[in-house]
Amino acid sequence: MKEMRLALWSDVERLKGIWKLCFGDSDSFIDFYFTQRFQPEQVAVYLVDHVITAMLTMIPVQWLEAHEGQKSIQGSMLYAIGTHPDFQHRGIATELMDWALAYLGKRQMELCVLVPAEAELFNFYERRGYQAGFALREAVLNRNEIEVMCASSGINRENRSGFAVSAAAPQAYNSIRNQLLRGATYLAYREEEVAYQKKISRLSGADLYKLNVGEVQGCAAVERLTGDKVLVKEYLVPEEFFCHGLKALAHTLQAQEFIIRTPAHGGQVMGGQVRSFGMFKRISSRELGPVHHQNEIFEERAYLGLAFD
User: Fold this and answer.
1) What is the pTM of this model?
2) Are 21 and 7 in contact (CB under 8 A)?
3) Handedness of CA 214, 220, 226, 228 (dihedral sign)
């Protein structure tokens, strides 16, 4: 007998076990997640004979369209989709995702988004009706390459153009983020999601940062992967200050290797690769406009940014 429903607090220990088997995280991180982020009303579970065999989380997001006065569409990001190894290859995850979309649709959600954990999963989700989109630019630079890049842009060691880098509160980070992305098509997040990202960043040994010089502001969400390697999950700054801010950020983080993600149209000076980062599927039948226009919005211009990948 199968059943799909929202999670209960009493399900936590079983869910922790599935998380451990599927994602391989440490017990300390799993405990951290279920203490800091778990909300049972946002988690769907699949039961076989009254035993939970699969789970997924539905994180609220807001899609803001660049045209039509920044039109807003409510949606959800599917996260931590996992099936217990004893029950894999039975289509259970697909059934649970379909159940989640039906559940979200009843609550007036119009868009479902996810970020595949591996490149190979794009094909898996494509077969289930999702489309690739939300391009970003990603570059891997070492400290010396940042120095050279900035020197070629007229920034020397002594001149970081006054950029101050400091830890940002979630509200301040979200305010700067929304301001810098105004006029773009992008996913906006509630303050509590940004607050959780700050907790993840701090747990890793980094933080959310704001960058200031005069009236110019930027922001960066950073996780430390090792002592010498950091992931800048989101780096936003006015394009003319791109190198100035990056040099100041690198100086603050004191790492040797930097994985840097920016919107696809920005950061051309650092090179890197432009690639699809997420996938989307419409829940509602209400049209956004002509299909070709809709796909162009997502694939070429929409920005996802923060994701708990």
Assistant:
1) 0.88
2) no
3) negative
